[in-house]
Amino acid sequence: MRSHHDMGGLEAGPVTPAEHDYAPWEKRVDALMMLLSARGHLKVDELRRNVEALGPEAYDKMSYYERWIASITATLLQRGILSSDEIGRRVAAVEAQYAAEQADAAPAKGTAP
Amino acid sequence: MSGHEHHDHDHAHDHAHPHAPPPDADAALTHAQALELAVTSLLIEKGVFSADEMRRQIEAMDARHPGLGGRLVARAWVDPAFKARALADGSAAARELGLEVGPLRLIVVENTAAVHNLIVCTLCSCYPRMLLGLPPDWYKNRAYRSRAVREPRAVLSEFGTEIAPDIEVRVHDSTADMRYLVLPRRPAGTEGWSEENLAALATRDSMIGVALARNPGA
Amino acid sequence: MSGASVNPAAAPRFAPGDRVTVRRAYPPGHIRTPYYCRGASGVIERLCGRFANPEELAFNRPGLPAQPLYRVRFRQAELWPDYQGPARDTIEIEIYQHWLEAAP
Question: B-chain residues within 8 Å CB-CB of C40?
């Protein structure tokens, strides 16, 4: 009954001194957490719990801020601050807009990546 | 290796076009990126915060870097009374230096001839962000979180840090509300140095505990 | 934060130097007592203060009354049967009072 995130003492490979400069979208996710927390719309404990709830596969496959945005979204849904419907519609709109702009930017390339 | 953030000129997406993709998206838009844009734009529209507040929050975090922790270390090195206060109440000591730490509950742990300290958060990634900036990937990854508590000396060796067996290695697992900063030992040959130059020797890795402070001339 | 009215249910039971054992319990939910120290015995290093219970905060509940939080020091050699290091090595973990029992 050990949760996958509770990893102290488990075997693992060498510590690779990986680090990267945070991408702007990652900094926005971090800022989202700070802003929501400061306004009382999210507790860091909810963030952690919802990261843990992603499950072992997602946890290992997703990057740190991918887990955070998934967790922040879950928290907002749980609290009723945003609805599934409006998030889903907005994601679709964002993706469509992005695809359209990619097509406009490079018409010779054909379909968006 | 200093861990300083590069100052981005990215701006939160234009409020007039809340669906506009970010300037950094030169590759495929991932689901996570699309989700962030969606959530952020919805929250701005609902007035939970403004685009300007988000921009300022990003700038505020960009302004946090290991040099801030380094100032605390340097002051502790030159002022024994300050050091005593820092060991008793790290947050109060930071505020004495004008470092804004908010609700941070900081514990400063001192490396000595008898003890070497190492910080980890096995359960997630707790880290004194307000003094060191955002943590490096390795601190948040599985290998460090799993092994730092069980085989700290092997982990230290992987960072090139060897601690003699007659020195106690003391690991701190940051599981709850406290955050930790290691006060590394002051390098030899730094007598009379200015605090500014001393602060530069207190690297991020030395304040996490995986390394010693940098030697002069290194 | 401390300073709230004293609730007897959340009064500190332990003092620095007291020997304590971490309860051997495995509850579901959001738990901040790491698996690897459950059932282990150590010594109270300090009382950190009283804080709202994260197990409750995780579900957007207040987590009150605030619970005493301690730093507990363990000998690595007692925690890990195969610990590769000197007997003097230790680890200190923040643990909430409701996870601790007085050790014999």
Answer: none
Give the separation between CA B126 and CA B149, rounded to whole angstroms. Answer: 15
Tell me, what's the ipTM? Answer: 0.92
Residue of chain C nearest A42, judged by CA positions? C60
User: pTM of the entire structure?
Assistant: 0.90
Cross-chain CB nearest to A9 (options C58, C60, C80)? C80
What's the CATH code, domain A24-107?
1.10.472.20
pLDDT at B202: 98
Q: Does B5 touch chain A (CB under 8 A)?
A: yes
C59 and A46 within 8 Å at the Cβ level: the answer is: yes
The predicted-structure confidence for B108-151, as pLDDT tens digits, reads as follows 999 999 999 999 999 999 999 999 999 999 999 999 999 999 99
Domain count for chain C, please give it: 1
**Nearest residue in chain C measured CA to CA from B105:** C48
